[in-house]
Structure formats: C-alpha cells, structure tokens
Write a structure and sequence with these properties.
The protein contains 2 helices and 3 strands. It is 38% helix and 15% strand. The mean pLDDT is 92. This is HicB-like antitoxin of toxin-antitoxin system domain-containing protein.
Length: 82
C-alpha cells in the first residue's frame, strides 16, 4: 500500500550568485539550493524525503517539527517607497 501523498509549501529566493534557495517551513532545517528551478524542484523532493525519513527515525527531530514548524497560509513580497 502506497503512503498518501503529502503537500508542502516552499519559500524560494534567488541569492546574489543566481542560485535558487528553497526553504520548507513545515520541516525545520529542511532547505536546499540549485542553479535552475528544474534542479531545485528535484532537490526539494529529495530533501523533503530525507527530512521525513529522519522524523521517523529520530524522536528529537519529530519534537522539533511539532515545536518549530509552521505552514504559512500566505507568503508575499511587496515594495514600499518612503
């Protein structure tokens, strides 16, 4: 029996060197980077799988997920001129 698919929101930024940086807020410490968006999506799936495997094997990490994770309902960016 296959496990149910889970959905995670990711926050993506582009750094000064042109790399895409992804953070998965629901999984503390779960982040990755890549030169292209295509590569980033692949890396995100891999790092989420690693973090979920770690949560099964490590009770301390499971506690961190319960205590420190958050699932944003909205993430935005805007410009303000002052």
């Amino acid at each position: 029996m296959k496990a149910a698919k889970r959905q995670f929101k990711i926050v993506i930024e582009r750094d000064e060197d042109g790399y895409f940086i992804a953070d998965i807020p629901a999984l503390p410490g779960c982040h990755t980077q890549a030169k292209t968006m295509e590569e980033l999506k692949k890396n995100v799936r891999e790092v989420i799988a690693l973090c979920l495997a770690e949560s099964k094997a490590n009770p301390a990490y499971r506690r961190q997920i319960r205590e420190f994770s958050y699932e944003p309902s909205f993430v935005g960016i805007d410009t303000v001129i002052v």
